Amino acid sequence: MGVVGNLAKRSDVDQDLPATETASETTVVTIGETLTNERFDRYLTTKLPHISRGGIQRLMREGCILVDGKPAKPTQHPTAGQTVEITWPVARELEAKPEDLPLDILFEDNDLVVVNKPAGMPTHPGHGHEGGTLVNALLHHCAGSLSGIGGVVRPGIVHRLDLDPTGCLVAAKNDAAHLGLAAQFKEREVAKRYHAIVCGCLANDEGEIDAPIARHPVHRKLMAVQPGASRNARTSWRVLERLAKSTLVEATLHTGRTHQIRVHFKHIGFPLAGDALYGTKATAQLAGDTGVRAERQMLHARSLAFTHPRSSDRLTFEAARPSDFERVLDKLRSAKTKT
Predict the structure, then answer these.
(1) Active site residues
(2) Residue 235 β-bridge partners
C-alpha cells in the first residue's frame, strides 16, 4: 500500500494514538537524498503531511518507526537509500466511565444540564485523557442518564470547550434534547459570549473579524486563517477594559470553528495571553513588559443562551470568571497604574 493510502486511515494519529495496541498496517518510505542539516522527525512531516511532528515523535518513542530495522531518533539525519518503516498502532475504542468529580452546575432539569467547566478538565475522553473529563463527571452525576447520540466516548456532549478554557457548557440528558440543541448550534441560534485577555492594546473599542479558518497547511495540530477556505468564520468583539500592555475583551461567536477566537485574535496581531499554541511569544513579551505571566490560556465562556428543546423557553446562563483569571486581571490593572 502506498503512503497516501495509509495516511487516509491514520490522519488523526495525534489524537487517537493508543500506546498499548499491536500494529496492523505499515507504511514504507525510501529516502532519496542525504540531508545533513535536516532532523529526521521534521523530514518525515514532509513525507507524511497529515501527521504533526509531535505525532511522529510519539511514534518514535513507542518504537513504531524503524530506519533500516533500527528504532528511529528524532535528531538523526536522513541518508539516501535508507528504508523507513512506520507501523501504525491499532485504534482502540475508548469508553467513558463514571467518576465522582466535582461539578459547578448552573442549571439542571430532566432534559439538560449546564455546567461551569473548570480549567484543565477535558470535555470528553481522548488520547492522553481517558479519565478525569467532564463526561466522566456527568456520567456519575446523572447516573448514566445522558444522550447516547455522542456514542460511548461523548455521551450527552452537544458542543465542547478545549482543555484550558472555562465557563458555560450544556449537555443533553436524552436524545430528544440532544437533537434539539444540536439543531440550534447548526443554525447558529445559540448565543455564545466569551471573555478573553489579549496581548497588546487594541486601537478601537469594538470590531469584527470575518476570516475563514481551516487546518494549518503544515502544522496539522493548528488552525489558521485561510483566505481560500470554504467555511467562513466570524467573531465580533468589544473592549471591556484596557490593561497594562493588554486588553480584556468580550468576544461573540457567530460561527463555531475550532480555536476560532484564538486564531482570529492571533490573525489581527493580538493573541490570547497564556495561549501555548498561538501566543507563546506574545505571552513572553507581556510577562517581560509587565511582570505578569498567564500560566494558561485566558479564555472564559462567560454566557450561553439557547431555547429549551422541550419548553421552548429562551434560557440564558452566565458563569463567573475563575479566580486565576481574576488574579491575572488584577495584576495587569496594578501594572497599568505603575506605568
Answers:
(1) 162
(2) 209, 253
Find cell 501566543 and name the residue: 279
Beta carbons within 10 angstroms of residue 281's beta carbon: 10
DSSP state of 322: P
Q: What is the pTM of this model?
A: 0.74
Query: Look-up: residue for cell 481517558?
Result: 130
Q: What is the pLDDT of residues 148-198, one digit of tens each?
A: 877 766 889 999 999 999 999 999 999 999 999 999 998 999 999 999 999
Within a 10 A sphere around the Cβ of 296, how many other Cβ atoms? 19
What gap in Å lies between CA 221 and CA 197, rounded to an integer? Answer: 23
CA atoms within 13 A on the CB side of 313: 4
Q: The domain 188-339: what is its CATH number?
A: 3.30.2350.10
Shared fold status for 3-89 and 93-187: no
Let me know: does 66 contact 84? Beta carbons within 8 Å.
yes
User: Which SS3 state, helix, strand or coil, does residue 206 take?
Assistant: strand
Locate the domains of the chain by residue range: 3-89, 93-187, 188-339
pLDDT digits (tens, 9 = 90+) for 37-96: 889 988 888 887 667 777 788 889 889 999 999 999 999 999 999 999 988 776 555 678
CATH architecture assigned to 93-187: 2-Layer Sandwich (3.30)
Strand, helix or coil at 69?
A: coil
Cα torsion 217, 220, 223, 229 to 10°: value is 40
- Residue appearing with cell numbers 462567560: 302
